[in-house]
Amino acid sequence: MAERRWTWLSAQYNIPYPFLHPVDFALLSDVTGSDSSRWSVLKVWYAGQIYESLEEFVEGYNSNSIPKLKLQKPVESETLFSTLNLKGIPSPRNSQRPPQQYEADGKRYSLKDRQVKYLDWTFNFRMSPFTGPSVYDIRFKGERIAYEIGLSEISLYYSGFAPMQVGSRDVIIFMFSYYTHYCMLII
């Protein structure tokens, strides 16, 4: 039999940045296969608790044994904290030139292409969106200290309080070097 495909389907408000206005309701659904008539709800997350079935949740909700949440939908406006609209008085109030760093005795470094020379040190650098920063041919007073120092992988780990914030298991990892695009691993 094919592997099962489960996913948390969470309720969200239809406003910009809805994750900043959480709705404490989600369904763990079995969405295996392309025939949606065979999909089912496995668990319900509501008011900080997991209910083992949709029937258990509905029965508890209708019998008032489950606390009922009364959420007020955020009103979309320019003053809503989650908008990108500028709030308050801009700073600085007066137009000024940006601050500058001053090197009284001149620069102690030079940069040509990707090679940096700093005092007795020289190295080459590279930045990759998939593996991050790397430095190569690191030398001190002409003697090689290291051929390459860098990251071999960039990954992001996500988790949260509610199960829909982390997928259907414990943690979500985005691996950036997998096929030169990110992939999602759930462990």
From TrEMBL:
GO cellular-component term (any) = plasma membrane
Question: Domain named DUF1965: which ranges?
Answer: 20-70
Keyword terms: Copper, Metal-binding, Oxidoreductase, TPQ
| Pfam families named in the record | Cu_amine_oxid, DUF1965
What GO MF annotations does this protein's record show?
copper ion binding; primary methylamine oxidase activity; quinone binding
Picking any one GO biological process from the record gives: amine metabolic process
Keyword Metal-binding carried by entry: yes
Cofactor binding remark? Contains 1 topaquinone per subunit.
Residue ranges of every copy of the Copper amine oxidase catalytic domain listed in the record: 100-165
Q: Which cofactor does it need?
A: Cu cation
| Domain of life assignment | Eukaryota
Post-translational modification, as annotated:
Topaquinone (TPQ) is generated by copper-dependent autoxidation of a specific tyrosyl residue.
Q: What Enzyme Commission number does this protein have?
A: 1.4.3.-
At the top of the EC hierarchy, this enzyme's class is oxidoreductase
Question: Which family is this sequence assigned to?
Answer: Belongs to the copper/topaquinone oxidase family.
Give the protein name, as stated in the record: Amine oxidase
Q: Which organism is it from?
A: Biomphalaria glabrata
